[in-house]
């Protein structure tokens, strides 16, 4: 039977008990915990960077959509390669490839997939008639860091598909770490959404915040814990130490490249930001935001660092 990434429903019927939550935060052998430890410093850096940039982006729909389109290309690429690999006939694969296919099948969680959600958001912001029309019009990125990122992903993920696990862990759990805060901030942002006669801002904003929503489940925390559990059970004893080290290294590379992509969008719009807010106001606002970001990051990390 061919693999269908959307087949069936995805339900989480109960909350996890404390005993069912794995891996434990102090489990030094868990791959997820090893990734978190290795990327802790660079994770803080991109959190602060995005916190600062997003304040300006939420005042300008052009900057905001440029920001999320950068992440759209990343999600689309690794999810496409993932589904494509799972759809391959196991009889055509080597034994090692079949083992990796089985691991990736165990970790695959349709409720987390973000490609279609991002296409809906970007179709709204770019005023295309449908997600399909958007996907066709914006098939390839034009900014250099985004082009470089996609080339890198195609090269490494086709050669070593187990590195998909680095993207799944890093990007999906990042959405849980800051997604709810971002969803609320985006939905409340004035000037980000058009005025539609007869509709409230909340109704209009629902068309541009799909990235941060998981409609296939009722409990987002249970979804996060379920993914962590799948990840741990699938990777604990099925990957070699060399493969695990490569996944950790690729996770660090993802953060570095995301920082470069965010910086590129920021540089492209620097003149517009200064003209809109004024240099002194922008500089003062940035100082205030650094203080606020540090405080918010501290609260976030207390709650979410032990993914």
From TrEMBL:
GO BP annotations listed: heme oxidation
Pfam short name (any one): Heme_oxygenase
Regions crossing the membrane: 162-182, 277-299
GO terms for MF: heme oxygenase (decyclizing) activity; metal ion binding
Gene3D superfamilies to which the protein is assigned, alphabetical: Heme oxygenase-like
Binding site for heme b: 43
Keyword terms of this UniProt record: Heme, Iron, Membrane, Metal-binding, Transmembrane, Transmembrane helix
InterPro entries: Haem_Oase (IPR002051), Haem_Oase-like (IPR016053), Haem_Oase-like_multi-hlx (IPR016084)
Leader peptide range in chain numbering: none
Record has Transmembrane helix as a keyword: yes
Name recorded for this polypeptide: Heme oxygenase
């Amino acid at each position: 039977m061919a693999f269908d990434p959307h087949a069936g429903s995805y339900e989480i019927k109960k909350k996890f008990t404390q005993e069912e939550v794995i891996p434990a935060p102090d489990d030094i052998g868990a791959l997820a915990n090893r990734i978190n430890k290795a990327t802790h410093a660079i994770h803080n850096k991109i959190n602060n960077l995005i916190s600062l940039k997003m304040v300006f982006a939420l005042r300008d729909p052009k900057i905001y959509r440029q920001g999320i389109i950068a992440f759209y290309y990343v999600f689309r690429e690794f999810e496409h390669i993932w589904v494509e690999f799972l759809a391959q006939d196991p009889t055509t694969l080597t034994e090692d490839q079949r083992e990796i296919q089985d691991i990736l099948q165990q970790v695959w969680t349709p409720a987390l997939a973000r490609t279609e959600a991002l296409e809906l958001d970007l179709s709204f912001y770019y005023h295309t008639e449908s997600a399909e029309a958007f996907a066709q019009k914006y098939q390839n990125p034009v900014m250099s860091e985004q082009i470089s990122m996609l080339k890198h992903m195609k090269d490494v993920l086709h050669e070593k598909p187990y590195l998909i696990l680095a993207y799944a862990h890093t990007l999906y759990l990042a959405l849980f770490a800051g997604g709810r805060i971002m969803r609320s901030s985006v939905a409340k942002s004035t000037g980000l959404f058009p005025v539609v006669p007869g509709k409230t801002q909340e109704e209009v904003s629902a068309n541009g915040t799909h990235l941060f929503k998981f409609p296939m489940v009722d409990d987002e925390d249970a979804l996060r814990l379920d993914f962590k559990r799948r990840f741990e059970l699938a990777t604990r004893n099925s990957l070699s130490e060399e493969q695990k080290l490569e996944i950790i290294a690729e996770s660090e590379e993802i953060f570095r490249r995301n920082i470069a992509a965010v910086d590129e969008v920021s540089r492209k719009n620097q003149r517009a930001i200064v003209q809109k807010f004024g240099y002194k106001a922008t500089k003062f606002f940035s100082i205030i935001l650094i203080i606020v970001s540090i405080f918010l990051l501290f609260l976030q990390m207390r709650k979410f660092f032990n993914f």
